[in-house]
Design goal:
This protein is mainly α and about 400 residues long. The chain contains 15 helices and no strands. The longest helix is centred in the first third of the chain and has 36 residues.
């Protein structure tokens, strides 16, 4: 079993909570800006939909690389050193956003900013059970603060995303928050050394092979992949879809998107105790079923269904943090980090494939038809989870 930090002093508890909240808000804001500013990038660099989809695709290439490599090192390095290194990479990308206006540099920076951001938030979820006695509650609580960052970025960004100067200023604020987070991290008590790895996990490839051989792995990859497309697709394309297909202004489309993520934010706060009570497995079945029904109906009804689409955010709220928790239940504690990293990394291929082709689909068939891929993925997420829940069993320590 991996080392758990000795019960921290009250001041240390406050510091840990402050670090989690600060970083989750900042990382949420970093992720949420991309879709809001996408129309501005198109205008500034004169991009086609295919070229603008490359911006989104590069961010998920970053997710793939960081999760694939980072999950392995998360289990083998000092947690504090690992978090510090990834934070510095994230902040370096933000510095590029602040100081440049170049489409090629934007693509490269997206790889690092979104890859590092996803790795950081995933690492914090993985570390939560080492620091808190009720991990299902705290994971949803901290991901609530992540939703606060996304909501704020989309709400504020939607009002100012008409000039590149706003992009520079918002990323400067995030860079300063990151610097403050490094100061908190330096003083935080975290596990310094991991438990010895099992022999079959002595090398990277042996560890990966062990994880991929698990009967639940194929289901977990599909579950994460379909979830990515359903949530990230809306996050990245809602503003463009609302403006070009539903007849909304850029500000109104961003507001609608912020309501969806506001539902995710509020739901994580309201439903965290319920997830702990119902158990994570039963909670996902219930919430995923409701979310898929609302999402599908909302998209099919077009502009008149936008309220249902936004309400689906409440049902989506507990899904991702609880999925991360469930992945850990299928593998030994010493392999949690590499398991979460590998599975979520491979699942990122769904995001990459979707964004590699979505812009072209929109150029050829329009938004109204192409956007239907998103609710289809929400339904497939639900169905894959139900099948996995019935056919596989969690790991028994």
């Amino acid at each position: 079993m991996e080392n758990r930090v000795a019960t921290p002093k009250r001041s240390e508890q406050v510091l840990i909570l402050a670090y989690y909240v600060l970083m989750m808000v900042a990382l949420g804001a970093s992720d949420g800006l991309r879709g809001v500013f996408l129309p501005l990038f198109e205008d500034t660099f004169t991009l086609t939909k295919t070229q603008s989809s490359m911006i989104i695709m590069c961010s998920y290439v970053g997710n793939l690389v960081f999760l694939l490599i980072g999950g392995y090192f998360l289990d083998r390095m000092s947690k504090k050193r690992f978090l510090c290194m990834v934070m510095l990479l994230w902040m370096a990308a933000l510095l590029c956003y602040i100081t440049t206006e170049s489409y090629p540099i934007l693509l490269v920076a997206m790889v690092f900013s979104l890859g590092a951001s996803t790795m950081l938030s995933t690492s914090l979820n993985v570390i939560t059970p080492l620091l808190f006695a009720a991990p299902a509650f705290y994971i949803n609580l901290f991901n609530f603060t992540n939703g606060v960052g996304i909501f704020a970025a989309q709400n504020i960004g939607g009002k100012v995303a008409d000039r590149m100067q706003s992009w520079h200023v918002i990323n400067l604020v995030l860079l300063l928050l990151g610097a403050l987070g490094l100061c908190f991290l330096h003083r935080m008590p975290l596990p310094k050394q991991n438990a010895p790895q099992p022999k079959e996990q002595g090398s990277t490839w042996a560890a990966y092979k062990s994880i991929l051989k698990h009967p639940a792995c194929k289901y977990l990859i599909c579950i994460c992949g379909f979830y990515y497309v359903a949530e990230h697709g809306l996050q990245n394309w809602m503003v463009s879809y609302g403006g070009e297909c539903l007849g909304l202004t850029r500000e109104r489309a961003a507001l609608a998107l912020s309501i969806f993520f506001g539902g995710i934010m509020i739901g994580r706060l309201l439903f965290a105790p319920l997830v702990q009570k119902l158990t994570p497995g039963r909670s996902i079945t219930i919430f995923a079923g409701i979310g898929a029904a609302l999402y599908l109906t909302g998209i099919l009804l077009g502009r008149s269904g936008i309220v249902l689409l936004m309400l689906s955010g409440l049902a989506f709220s507990i899904l991702w943090p609880t999925i991360v928790l469930i992945i850990g239940t299928y593998y030994p504690a010493a392999s949690n980090g590499v398991a979460v990293g590998l599975i979520t990394a491979v699942a990122t291929l769904f995001d990459i494939a979707f964004n590699a082709g979505f812009g072209t689909l929109v150029d050829h068939f329009g938004f109204a038809r192409s956007i239907r891929i998103l609710p289809l993925c929400a339904v497939l997420f639900f169905l894959c989870y139900v099948v996995m829940w019935r056919r596989t069993k969690p790991y028994a320590e």
